[in-house]
């Protein structure tokens, strides 16, 4: 019998729980100055922020068009973000920033939405329900089929 993670992507909480404290701290700094320092508190903080529609709107607005396209591609593909396909379609990679697990890393906000090439299904649902996850100028729209 396949494990649950083999049959469907993990929820955001499980994804965050799998990350190290330095990675969580770097991501949390994208959401607020001076985030918590303990892992459980970081996870709770990030979950509450990423459930807030206004925060998601701010993240979306801060993404450049290439990053918005990456989110759209990850949401619309059953296999998640495919770097080679994205590069072929858009001519470049999105800016991911750096996130190696060190204190001085500087991830981009894109990493708040895509984890390991996938948008967790609960976050995907919030992006879909938000109605702002689109960019008509660039010709892509975030929709989940």
Helix content: 40-55%
Structural class: mainly alpha
Q: Quick check: average pLDDT? A: 84
**Amino-to-carboxy terminus distance:** 27 Å
Global morphology: globular
Rounded Rg: 15 Å
The main sheet comes to:
2 strands, antiparallel
Number of domains: 1
User: Strand order, biggest sheet?
Assistant: 1-2
The amount of beta strand, in percent, is under 5%
Strand elements, count: 2
Could you explain the architecture of this structure?
The chain is an all-alpha fold. It has one domain (4-141). The protein has helices spanning 4-7, 12-17, 21-28, 39-50, 53-62, 65-76, 83-90, 121-130, and strands at 134-135, 140-141. A two-stranded antiparallel sheet has the order 1-2. Strand 1 (134-135) and strand 2 form a beta hairpin. The model is unreliable at 1-7 and 135-140 (pLDDT under 50).
Secondary structure elements and their pairing?
Layout: H1 4-7, H2 12-17, H3 21-28, H4 39-50, H5 53-62, H6 65-76, H7 83-90, H8 121-130, E1 134-135, E2 140-141
Antiparallel strand pairs: 1-2
From the structure above, extract its key features.
single chain; 2 strands; disordered N terminus; globular; 145 residues; mainly alpha; two-stranded antiparallel sheet
Summarize the structure.
With 145 residues, the chain is mainly alpha-helical. Helices cover 48% and strands 3% of the residues.
